[in-house]
Amino acid sequence: MNKFQFMGRLTRDPEARVTPNTNTPVTTFSVAVNRRFADANGERKADFFNLTAYGKLADFCAKYYRKGQQVLVEGRIQNRTWDDANGQRRYATDFIVENAYFADSRREAGAVDEVPSSSMDGEFITVDDTDDLPF
Prior knowledge:
Elements: E1 4-10, E2 15-18, E3 25-38, E4 44-54, H1 55-64, E5 70-83, E6 89-102, H2 106-109, E7 114-116, E8 124-126
Parallel strand pairs: 4-6
Antiparallel strand pairs: 1-3, 1-5, 2-3, 3-4, 5-6, 7-8
């Protein structure tokens, strides 16, 4: 199984672009993830991960994610290799986002009024949090 799951805060606004040959949307962003335990000095360290989303999910991340928001992302890890201009073999590990969620409370997130549906088909539902739950 090839899967990662990170919950952390965005360190910068996402950067959106499209691939040159296929015009596929691509969005990159970075997430700071706190480590579970403190070090010997009592400080909690964080790891920083660069992430990439494609297609409709890339559009979603570019439109709704902002620096400082807490998010939960899931996806797969992908390795790639290439030869650089000097003929040396280079390696990279990419974190490809397949699912992305908001992890802030509504107050922390700035009370977004419309939330994309779970199908990521571009449709939106209006959320009214003033009513009691129907069950």
